[in-house]
Amino acid sequence: MRYVTFSIVLLSILLGACDRAGDICVITVGDACITRQGYRDRLERFAEESMINSEDVLQEMKPVVAGNIVEEQLILQYAGRGFVTVTDQEVDIAMKGLMQGMNQEDLNALLTEEYRSLSDMKNFIRTRLLIDRTVEKAVKKEIAVPAEKIQQYYQEHLAEFYRPSSVELYHVFVRDKYQAKEALVMLRSGVSLEQVVMHCSESKDNKDSGFMGIFAKGELPREVEDVVFSIPERRYSEIIETQRGFHIFYVAKRTKPGTLPLVEAADQIRDELEGELFEEKYSEFIDELKKEYTVEVKWDEINSISVKE
Q1: What is the pLDDT of residue 244?
Q2: Closest CA relative to residue 265, chosen from 185, 180, 189, 162
Q3: What is the end-to-end Cα distance of the chain in Å, rounded?
Q4: Helix 193-200 vs helix 177-188: crossing angle, to nearest 10
Q5: In a designed cystine with 170, which of 5, 58, 175, 250 is the match (CB 3.0 to 4.6 A)?
Q6: Residue 124 in contact with residue 115, Cβ under 8 Å?
Q7: Which residues contact 17 (CB under 8 A, 6 or more apart)?
Q8: Residue ranges of the chain with per-residue pLDDT less than 70
Q9: pTM above 0.90, yes or no
Q10: Which domains does the chain have, with CATH numbers?
Q11: How many other CB atoms are found less than 10 A from the CB of residue 74?
């Protein structure tokens, strides 16, 4: 999603943009100017967050960064006409939420890595709130998927909702066979799985419960799958030897293969259809803004910018 993409890489863009003596505008959107240095800062942050080290790859991504900046500035211009506002109180509440639980060391690290100062952080939050609220008002509020559309999608894509049989699986894992026998005796004598896991298990994952996960048929090694899909719910397996060591499996729950009913698939379908509608309406929104505001991108200047400058 384009909007999500530029939200993730948003660097604090101040209304009015960056005014630096001698620094030309490489992107102009309405009355907003993004300078060469402003674009370079943004490109550098994009490279860091995307873990791009290659100048050639970064060169190819410059249109993406420029497009993100243009879209953000278009939205901010739209918001600046009075359609959307963000109060100081709302910014303060968001700031408190962001900083909750931080000590001074954490705050200093955040300011070093993400923002230049508390004022920079505050401007970022205000800008983010303004963009999110504008998109919510101008695009998202118009999105609604009727029940008949959900049902139609379900009927036309039944194969997407087929689910193979699955098991909710727990285990006790040890490397010594004699310790495995001791664990199995404890389990069959009524000691709880949690107690046996804490006492015996060498697995580092979910050591307090032994929870492995929920697995569909075909996702586990054959020697494990043959066992766990053959024992009833709420039963322990025998000791199973694998390359790693010895396991005792516990099947807490199992499901039969079949197609999800519409009532269970509806939320997934709604999210997918709403996502498609959002993309469509968001593109229309940006296209309309481009008709209202002059957009100029100096590609020769942008293509000459390097994060190694």
Answers
A1: 82
A2: 162
A3: 31
A4: 160
A5: 250
A6: yes
A7: 32, 33, 34, 35, 38, 73
A8: 1-22, 106-116, 203-208, 309
A9: no
A10: 2-143+270-303 (1.10.4030.10), 165-256 (3.10.50.40)
A11: 23
β partners of residue 236: 250
Q: What is the reported pLDDT for 176?
A: 86
Token digits of residue 134: 């504008």
Q: Which residues pair with 253 in a beta bridge?
A: 168
Place of tokens 């100062």: 117
Both structure tokens of 218: 């075909």
In tens, the pLDDT along 93-104 reads 888 887 777 777
* Strand arrangement, sheet containing 32-35: 32-35, 25-29, 295-297
Q: Which residues pair with 169 in a beta bridge?
A: 213, 251
State how far the Cα of 39 lies from the Cα of 190, in Å rounded to an integer.
Answer: 66
Output the CA–CA distances (angstroms, integers) from residue 14 to 29, 69, 103, in the order listed: 13, 12, 27
Q: Which residues of 126-153 are buried (b: 16+ CB within 10 A; e: fewer)?
A: bbbbbbbbbbeebbeeeeebeeeebeeb
Residue given tokens 């490109």 in the structure block: 43
Three-class HEC string of the chain: CHHHHHHHCCCCCCCCCCCCCCCCEEEEECCEEEEHHHHHHHHHHHHHHHCCCCHHHHHHHHHHHHHHHHHHHHHHHHHHHHHCCCCHHHHHHHHHHHHCCCCHHHHHHHHHHCCCCHHHHHHHHHHHHHHHHHHHHHCHHHCCCCHHHHHHHHHHCHHHHEECCEEEEEEEEECCHHHHHHHHHHHHCCCCHHHHHHHHCCCCCCCCCCEEEEEECCCCCHHHHHHHCCCCCCEEEEEEECCCCEEEEEEEEEECCEECCHHHHHHHHHHHHHHHHHHHHHHHHHHHHHHHCCEEECHHHHHCCCCCC
Identify residue 33 by its one-letter amino acid code: C
